[in-house]
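Problem 3 from the worked examples.
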Amino acid sequence: MDPINGMLYGLSVAVTPVNLVAALVGALLGTAIGVLPGLGPVAGAALVLPVTYTMPPVTGLIALAGIFYGAMYGGSTTSILVNIPGETASVMTCIDGYEMTKRGRAGAALAVVAIGSFVAGTLSVIGVMLFSPVLSNIALSFGSADFFALTTVGLIVLSRVTGGSFARAMFSTVFGLLMATVGMEGTTGVRRFDFDMLELSQGIEIVPVAVGLFGISEMFFVVEDIVTGPKPLVVKLRELFPTREEWARSLPAWVRGTILGFSMGLLPGPMNVLSTFASYRVEKAVSKRREEFGHGAIEGVAGPEAANNAAATAQFVPLLVLGLPFSAMLALLLAALMIKGIQPGPLLIVQHPEIFWGVMASMYVGNVMLLVLNLPLVGLWASLLRVPLQILLPCIVLYAMIGAYSVRNSEFDLYVLVLFGIIGYVMRKLDFDLAPMILAVVLGPMIEKYMRQSLFLARGDLGVFLSTPISRAIWGVGVLVILIAGLRGLRAGAPAPVAAED
């Protein structure tokens, strides 16, 4: 079945009443899950998974997929309004989204996110349908040495995603890498830095770290502002939608974010998270208004959110075409199929075309639903800032605690949440950037895994890291980026020429 006929067949499956209801309920539930700080799509889908056992395979998968991409949109809401990432992929939205809120442009930021998610989701679904076989082969061509080069160079380059001092960025990065080494090592099973504590032997979960660093620390700042007197800013509903300039600046950011997110979504790992870091870096690099980044640049919201949605959609390619789940959420989707006796892989399109094409078409239908339903609700989300802080703050902290606890049902994660809230508050007071720390916590285990796999296969030969054309190209790009950054730093630090006196 060619892509055009497959798309039409998928739409015929997706628009049946039961599948439309499944997509609607999944998208709305996913949005609500994304709005709740820390809960995230994995925990939400895990709670819904038993309900899908009684559904037909395609209907259950459509509902779970709706939770996935719905949470991608919903997670940006609290990032913009109260500087708390509803889920990890919304961390970068906090940087400029919350600054727009403080300037009274929360409604514009939410509208840009809603429309950008629709644009990215639509283009990505078309890309998945047209290029699934080719793109899956590209992902398969990477070996362990290639992935080690990609993750390591990516960490170095993206650790300076928000600019600032190189030394401070490296300190945050190293601190995050240290956190990533806590727990059981994946290859040998050796326990490290756990102090004989069972909770630490399981590693440090990313959700309480992210919510603590960005959310709880922000609560400390808000409380500090309440004590010192300033009043919270209120969104003006007459400024709800973007201006003509904001539309013009958002459109190219959506396109760049979609292309970048879709490309990265085909690779293993939490690429919907990492693509937001990469997109923010790209937007800052190409912008003519770099000084606005970190102070409410609309591109800093539009690009990462488009990348987030595009990467989430692209991750269905390796799941359905190869049977390889590249994230915990996709592993739940794989489990839902396996329970029904369906094995994802190259033969899925032939043996179960209704599942492949139906799920892909439902993602387009679901994105239309999110756009139609969420744009009218932008004012409702923006009006949250009208709630008195004495009521809003305890609710936010409660939701953050529920989200941190629900990931592993561990009381220990609540202590991690509070601890990293304090760490985030102190580091922000000292003008440290927190984004590199989150990036290092996410990438650290992957870097170590790929390094160990490469050395094991090469019997300890360090030359394995430069043994393939892909790895050499990636290392070359990394060196080039570092040299360019160094030259820019030298040029910026050079003394201005002294004008000759007459």
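Problem 4, a separate protein:
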Amino acid sequence: MNEILDITIRSLWVSGSATIISSLWSILLAYKLSRSRGASRYIIPFFEALIGIPTVLIGLLLYMILSSRGPLGLFRLLYTPYAIILGQAILITPLITSICYRVLSSSWNTYGELAYTLGASEKQIMAIVLRESIPGIIAASVMGFSRAIGELGIALMVGGNIRGFTRVLTTAIALEVSKGEFEIAVVLGTILVVLVVAISFSLRILRRMYRV
């Protein structure tokens, strides 16, 4: 029981950290793209195509980069939770950026252009657009978190599924299935689903409170 709790907390920490990190640069990138129609015409379709990229491919690339012979091997991040966080952050960046771009573009067309004509500064316009886009940004973050916490390839390849250190819910489920411990795997799978649903509903409530 203690081990399951430890795995659950680690999964929330790893995927939550990855979502926060990815959201920070994704929101900024999406805002910049919403102001640049020319660049967004090519970048956004590319990002949308990357949403479905296999997680094992990202895991393989990160493994090569973070291994002892890779360019970032000196940091010794391979087989640590930080490698999983980095991989998941990269994985969900196209998803969060694409959704935030649509939301921010709509807010810019509705509020940003009006603020611009009224003489607002660039910082004021950005603050207005971001404030009006908060519900959509929250939705994008929730989708990113759900994608991150449910992925397996990256967590397994760069995390190594080390007990008490890098083992998360998805890798634990895979391990229990390989051992034939299907009851434990079902319990872990149920926890994973409950977490995703609970967080999704919680943030939906926050969105409604913000709108009110």
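Solution to problem 4. The CA atoms of residues 175 and 181 lie 9 Å apart. The radius of gyration is 19 Å.
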